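pls design
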C-alpha cells in the first residue's frame, strides 16, 4: 500500500476503492440516483447498499461475492437542515465495501484497521471503535466477537466502547436482515470537547467516519412488539464511509464546506455576492452553504434524468433549485447564476463522474429554463405578498403557500412584513404545515417492498434453476414444467425454457397458451412475472386444443412435457410498436435536443406510449416533423439487430441507456441501420427491419407531469384502420356540409362566422380532448391548458363544460391569449374547494405573471392580463399553485 497519505477527495476515493480491489473485491461504478425499477422502496438512492439489495436478498446473483463502490446518494429529509449546520448535505458520496456470504467480522475489522492506519494514515492512538453492547429485548448480549477481533488487530480494550441498540444495531425495518454494527471514530483532541469517549456527550470531539454493518440475523417482529432472530444462511458485510466527512478529517478542515469539493463553490458565491464567507454574517454563510450543496445536488439529479416538476423526484429537484435562487438573491447575486455554479461542479467532479461532463449543456438547458421560470414566479409571489400586506395580516397558511408555491423562505416573508409594520403571528401554524409536508415527503420515500423481494421470492419458491428465455429466436417451445406455485389464488408455472417475454422495459408480457404435449389440455398465459433474469408464468384454464372443451383444472405436474406457444399476432404488433418507440425517441432528440430522455413508456400490441423530458408542449409543426422522420426511417427498410457486448463498448458507441435501469457488465444493444440514428440498451423484442412497422401515426401529445410530455402513437394495421376511419368521418362531414371534402374547412369557417351573432353560440372547442389531457395531482384531475379563438366572455362557459367532462370533482384552468391581452379562468369543484384549492387564489397567482389581476368565487374566478407572451408561464404558475394547495 502507498505510504503517501491521500488528501484530495479524488485521492481518498481512489485509495479506498483500490485497497478493496487488492483484497479481491469487484469495483462497481456508482448506480444512478434514480433507483432501479426493481426497488420501489425509496424515491432516491440514499445509501451505498441500496443498489445492491437484490444481491443481499438473494433475488439476483452478484458479479462477485466481494464488492466495493463509491455511490452517489441524496437524502431529502436533510434539505431544511442544509446551511443551518456545517455538516448536513443533501447530495454526498458514500464509500463502501460489501461481502455477500463471503468474509465476515474478522476480515472486515482487519481491513478497516489496515486502511484506516496505513492507507489513510490516522494515528492508531487517536482511533476509537464502538461495538454492540447487547439488548435484552432482542435476546442478544455484547458482541464479544467484534471486541476480540479489534483486540486482535491491536486496539486496546479501553478504546473499545460498548453502545446500545439505537447506536450499534442495524435493521432495514421490522422484518428482514439485520445485525450489530461496529463503528470507527477519530479523537480530534481537547479543543473539540472533554476527554470522554464516543457516545458519552454531544461534543464534536469524536467524529465517526466508518460504519461496519455485520449482517448475521433474519428478524421477525410479532404483533406484541417482540422480535425473533434466527441466523442468516450466510453472513454478510455492508459498510459505509462518507467521503466528504473523511475529506474534512484528512484535510484538517473545521467543516465539510471548507473541503476541496465545496471551497470553489463558496468562492464563487463570494465573488458573485461581494460578501465574505465566515465574516460574522451568519445569514450570508447559510446562504452560501445552501448554494454550494444545492447546486451540486441539482447537477447530479439532472444528469441522472430527473427534471423539475411538482411530483416526487422532480419536486425535490425544483425545491432545491428554488431554494438556491432565493438564497442567491438574498445575498445580492443578480441575474441568472445557477449555470455558473453548474460549471464549477462539473470542473470539480467531472473526472470522477464523466456523465456530468457529457451532459453539461443538457443540464444547463434545464437549469436555465427553471431559473428563468422561477424568476417570473418569484415576481408573482412578491405581488401576492404585497396584496396580503395591504390587507394588514399574513397568516401561517399564507406564509406556507408563499414558501411552497413561490419558494419564499418564511424568514423573507416575516422580514418584509416587519418592514411594512405588519405583525406576524403565524409561526405555529406555519410550523404545523411544514411538519405535515415533511411527513408526506418521508412517507413517499418509504413505499414499496425491499428491492424486488416479492418477485425474488416467487422465483425462489417456484424453482431453483432459472428459466432459459428463448423468445428472441422462436415463439414455440417444447419444454418441461420445472415448478408450480399456488399463491393468492393464482397459479405460477415455471418452465425449463420459455419463449414468453416477461414484462419489463416498458414492454408488456407476451400472451399465448401452454398445452400438454399430447394436446389434451391447455392453459392461457395471463401474465409473466419477472424476477431478475428469471420468470414465472401466470396461467389460467382455457379452451382445450382440438376438441374445443374447457379445461377447468389443467393437471400440470413437475417434470411434465408441454408446448409453450406465444401469440404470434400480438407479439409482432408489440415488436412493431417497440421498434417504433426507439425511432420516436431518436427523432425527438434530433428535433428538440439532447435534453430529451425517456421518462417512461408502455409498449403494447394496440399502441405505444412514450413519456419524455421536455419543458413545453410540442407545436403541430414539431409533431408533423417527428412523425415524418419516423416514417422516413420505416420506408428506408433499415435493418434492426440486437448485439450483445460489454457495457463500456456499448456506451462508447453512443448507446442510449434508460435512467433508473440496472445494467450488468454485458448488455444487449438494439441498433437500427448502421446505428447512426438509433442505438439503445434494450432487452425487449423488435422487428427484423423497420419496413415491418408499415406506418407510424401519432394519436396524441400532452402533459404527463411538469416538464414531462407524453406521446401516444399506433403502427401497422391499427394505424391503417384509424386512417380509414378518419377518411370515412371526413366523407360524412363533407356530405353533411354539402361540399367536397377539400372544402370542408372553408365551409365550417363560414358556418362559425354566421353563428357569431347567435346569443347562445359558443366557440368550437373540443372539451373532451381537453379533459383527456388532465393530469392527476393528489388524486384530483387537473386540466391546465391554453385555448385559441375564445373570448373572455365565453371562457367561463368553456371551462365549466370541460370540468363537467372530467368524470368527477376536479380543477380546470384555461387561458385564451389574444393579440395584446390574455384571459384566464379557473373552475374548481366544490369538493376540491374544501381541500384548500380556491379559484380566486389560483387566478391571482397566474394573473400576476401576465401583468394583470382579477378574482371571483372559490369555485369560479376570472382574470385578464396585458402580456400574452407569458401565457404558458402563467399556466405553469397556476399548476404549481394547485399542487401546493393540494399538498403535492
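designed seq:
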Amino acid at each position: 500500500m502507498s505510504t503517501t497519505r491521500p488528501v484530495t477527495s479524488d485521492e481518498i476515493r481512489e485509495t479506498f476503492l483500490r485497497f478493496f480491489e487488492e483484497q479481491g473485491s469487484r469495483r462497481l461504478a456508482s448506480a444512478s440516483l434514480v433507483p432501479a425499477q426493481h426497488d420501489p422502496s425509496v424515491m432516491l438512492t440514499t445509501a451505498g447498499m441500496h443498489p445492491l439489495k437484490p444481491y443481499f436478498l438473494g433475488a439476483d446473483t452478484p458479479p462477485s461475492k466481494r464488492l466495493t463502490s463509491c455511490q452517489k446518494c441524496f437524502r431529502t429529509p436533510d434539505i431544511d437542515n442544509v446551511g443551518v449546520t456545517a455538516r448536513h448535505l443533501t447530495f454526498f458520496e458514500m464509500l463502501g465495501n460489501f461481502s455477500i456470504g463471503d468474509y465476515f467480522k474478522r476480515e472486515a475489522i482487519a481491513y478497516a484497521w489496515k486502511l484506516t492506519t496505513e492507507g489513510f494514515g490516522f494515528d492508531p492512538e487517536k482511533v476509537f471503535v464502538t461495538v454492540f453492547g447487547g439488548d435484552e429485548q432482542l435476546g442478544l448480549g455484547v458482541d464479544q466477537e467484534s471486541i476480540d477481533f479489534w483486540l486482535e488487530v491491536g486496539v486496546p480494550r479501553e478504546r473499545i466502547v460498548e453502545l446500545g441498540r439505537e447506536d450499534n444495531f442495524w435493521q432495514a425495518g421490522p422484518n428482514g436482515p439485520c445485525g450489530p454494527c461496529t463503528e470507527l471514530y477519530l479523537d480530534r483532541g481537547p479543543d473539540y470537547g472533554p476527554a470522554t469517549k464516543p457516545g458519552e456527550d454531544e461534543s464534536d470531539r469524536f467524529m465517526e467516519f466508518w460504519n461496519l454493518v455485520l449482517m448475521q440475523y433474519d428478524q421477525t417482529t410479532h404483533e406484541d412488539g417482540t422480535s425473533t432472530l434466527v441466523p442468516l444462511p450466510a453472513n454478510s458485510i455492508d459498510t459505509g464511509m462518507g467521503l466528504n466527512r473523511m475529506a474534512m478529517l484528512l484535510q484538517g478542515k473545521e467543516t465539510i464546506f471548507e473541503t476541496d469539493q465545496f471551497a470553489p463553490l463558496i468562492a464563487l458565491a463570494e465573488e458573485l455576492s461581494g460578501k465574505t464567507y465566515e465574516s460574522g454574517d451568519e445569514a450570508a454563510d447559510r446562504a452560501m452553504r445552501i448554494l454550494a450543496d444545492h447546486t451540486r445536488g441539482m447537477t447530479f439529479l439532472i444528469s441522472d434524468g430527473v427534471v423539475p416538476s411538482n411530483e416526487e423526484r422532480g419536486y425535490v429537484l425544483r425545491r432545491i433549485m428554488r431554494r438556491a435562487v432565493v438564497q442567491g438573491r438574498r445575498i445580492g447575486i443578480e441575474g441568472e447564476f445557477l449555470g455558473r455554479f453548474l460549471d464549477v461542479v462539473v470542473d470539480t467532479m467531472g473526472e470522477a463522474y464523466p456523465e456530468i461532463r457529457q451532459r453539461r449543456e443538457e443540464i444547463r438547458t434545464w437549469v436555465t429554463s427553471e431559473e428563468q421560470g422561477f424568476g417570473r414566479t418569484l415576481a408573482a409571489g412578491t405581488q401576492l405578498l404585497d396584496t396580503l400586506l395591504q390587507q394588514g395580516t399574513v397568516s401561517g397558511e399564507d406564509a406556507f403557500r408563499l414558501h411552497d408555491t413561490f419558494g419564499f423562505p418564511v424568514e423573507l416573508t416575516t422580514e418584509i412584513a416587519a418592514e411594512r409594520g405588519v405583525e406576524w403571528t403565524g409561526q405555529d401554524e406555519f410550523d404545523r404545515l411544514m411538519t405535515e409536508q415533511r411527513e408526506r415527503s418521508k412517507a413517499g420515500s418509504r413505499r414499496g417492498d425491499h428491492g424486488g423481494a416479492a418477485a425474488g421470492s416467487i422465483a425462489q419458491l417456484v424453482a431453483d434453476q432459472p428459466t432459459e428465455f428463448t423468445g428472441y429466436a422462436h415463439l414455440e417451445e417444447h419444454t418441461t414444467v420445472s415448478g408450480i406455485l399456488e399463491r393468492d389464488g393464482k397459479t405460477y408455472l415455471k418452465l425449463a425454457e420459455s419463449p414468453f417475454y416477461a414484462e419489463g422495459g416498458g414492454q408488456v408480457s407476451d400472451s399465448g397458451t401452454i398445452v400438454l404435449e399430447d394436446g389434451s389440455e391447455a392453459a392461457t398465459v395471463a401474465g409473466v412475472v419477472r424476477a431478475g433474469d428469471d420468470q414465472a408464468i401466470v396461467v389460467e384454464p382455457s379452451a382445450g386444443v382440438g376438441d374445443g372443451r374447457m379445461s377447468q383444472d389443467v393437471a400440470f405436474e413437475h417434470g411434465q412435457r408441454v408446448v409453450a406457444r406465444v401469440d404470434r399476432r400480438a407479439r409482432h404488433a408489440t415488436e412493431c410498436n417497440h421498434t417504433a418507440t426507439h425511432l420516436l425517441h431518436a427523432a425527438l432528440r434530433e428535433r428538440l435536443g439532447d435534453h430529451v430522455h425517456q421518462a417512461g413508456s408502455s409498449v403494447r400490441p394496440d399502441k405505444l406510449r412514450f413519456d419524455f423530458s421536455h419543458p413545453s408542449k410540442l407545436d403541430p409543426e414539431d409533431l408533423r416533423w417527428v412523425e415524418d422522420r419516423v416514417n422516413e426511417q420505416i420506408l428506408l427498410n433499415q435493418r434492426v439487430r440486437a448485439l450483445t457486448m460489454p457495457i463500456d463498448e456499448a456506451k462508447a458507441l453512443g448507446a442510449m441507456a434508460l435512467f433508473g435501469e440496472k445494467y450488468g457488465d454485458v448488455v444487449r444493444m438494439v441498433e437500427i441501420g448502421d446505428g447512426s440514428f438509433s442505438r439503445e440498451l434494450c432487452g425487449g423484442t423488435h422487428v427484423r427491419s423497420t419496413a415491418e412497422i408499415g406506418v407510424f401515426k401519432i394519436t396524441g401529445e400532452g402533459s404527463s407531469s411538469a416538464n414531462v410530455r407524453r406521446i401516444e402513437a399506433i403502427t401497422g394495421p391499427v394505424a391503417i384502420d384509424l386512417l380509414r376511419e378518419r377518411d370515412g368521418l371526413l366523407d360524412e362531414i363533407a356530405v353533411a356540409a354539402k361540399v367536397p371534402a377539400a372544402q370542408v374547412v372553408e365551409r365550417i369557417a363560414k358556418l362559425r362566422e354566421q353563428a357569431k351573432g347567435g346569443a347562445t353560440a359558443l366557440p368550437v372547442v373540443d372539451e373532451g380532448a381537453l379533459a383527456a389531457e388532465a393530469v392527476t395531482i393528489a388524486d384530483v384531475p387537473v386540466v391546465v391548458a391554453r385555448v385559441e379563438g375564445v373570448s373572455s366572455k365565453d371562457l367561463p362557459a368553456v371551462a365549466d363544460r370541460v370540468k363537467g367532462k372530467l368524470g368527477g370533482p376536479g380543477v380546470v384552468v384555461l387561458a385564451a391569449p389574444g393579440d395584446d391581452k390574455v384571459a384566464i379562468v379557473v373552475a374548481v369543484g366544490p369538493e376540491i374547494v374544501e381541500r384548500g384549492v380556491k379559484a380566486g387564489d389560483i387566478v391571482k397567482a397566474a394573473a400576476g405573471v401576465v401583468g394583470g389581476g382579477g378574482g371571483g368565487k372559490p369555485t369560479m374566478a376570472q382574470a385578464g392580463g396585458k402580456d400574452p407572451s407569458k401565457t404558458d408561464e402563467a399556466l405553469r404558475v397556476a399548476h404549481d399553485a394547485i399542487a401546493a394547495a393540494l399538498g403535492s
